[in-house]
Protein 1
Amino acid sequence: MLTSKEQKRAADEISNSSNVIGKGTVLEGNIETYGNIRIEGKIIGNIKSKSKIALGNSSHVEGNIIAQNADVEGEVRGKVDISEMLVLKSTAVINGDITTGKLVVESGAVFNGSCKMGAAIKDIKLGENGVRPHAQEARLN
């Protein structure tokens, strides 16, 4: 059995992990992670992170995004729910509704949809699609 110190260290390692979906990559399906994720490719599905999502200039997401923080340079077609801060860079194109704690919009960014700021967003829960988080990790290995 793990001690509380070992459990905390394991949780810290998971939340500090980083993931990258490279340019030219197309992924169909949902993504759930405790750590940060950077996307340069195309995602057809929902993305959920308990940390930060960074969508690069070449990114294209067709699905909903739920995260603690996000920086968007690419295109999103879907709802964007960010509990803390959402940054829309000058090349960002959002076609969907936004709910966020704080919003930064650079000149040139395009946003088509409604926006709610300062609204309390429920806790981000992973594994809600019927698959236990450990089972998902096992499939990736």
Note: The helical segments are 4-15, 133-140.
Protein 2
Amino acid sequence: MILVADSGSTKCDWIAVNKEGFQSDKISTMGFNPFFHSADFIAGKVNESEQLVKLSEKIEKIFFYGAGCSSIEFKEIVKNGLSKIFVNAQIFVDHDLAGAVYATTPENAGISCILGTGSNSCYFDGKEIYEAVPALGYILGDEGSGSYFGRQLLRLFLYKELPSHLHKAFEDRFNLKKQEIFENVYMKPHANVYLASFMRFLSDARDDDWVRKFMYKGFSEFITIHVWKFKNYKEVPVHFVGSIAYYFQDLLKHEAKIHHLNVGEIVKQPVQNLVAYHKKDL
């Protein structure tokens, strides 16, 4: 039996499958990022999932794709954490960009982008994965992501630069004070997830002209900073994975058209596609 996992910073989706045709329901846990989480922390949180613990001894291989798993050191943190629970498994850990590629264009050339809590991009030539610019995280980068839009929204709210009707709607909905925002952003863990949580407000107000222009600007910034860096971006499909790309795909496609992109797959949760890709490993 193999276990496939796709982890962003907010949520990790897991599916187990075997040769006999069994496939588990999707199992969800918090997202794991070795930049923020230790091996012991990962093991402890996985151990809280009764479904995963129940399957643990049957798992022979794990294919884990995760945010932050971009170096040997960070991959080892995740591998060591998982090995404490899945004692009989070979464990393969790779970057979430690799997961984005295998979930969208596993055989053909294309650009694969992540627009979820964070953002990133890469080019796949059919054999190798290439990055043009690094992912800088939610403080310096993550253009077009949930944490990016949430950060900009809070900034404009605190500076009283939101349109008056949106400022009032935001104030009435969340009743936030500056101190509470500062604590969540500067003092508590998972500030990126906190920032991304405000995407629900933008989603509910998506028909507002100001909100649409705000979203267009963020997606345009992602395209110009990330996608434009690939010289053949007009010649190959540009695929997207992640909740922001999926739920705001009408706005994303609007900007993509302006920038002459050929939008390919838009996948909300890559794990199902990754299971299909890894059935060859059974």
Note: The first strand starts at residue 2 and ends at 7.
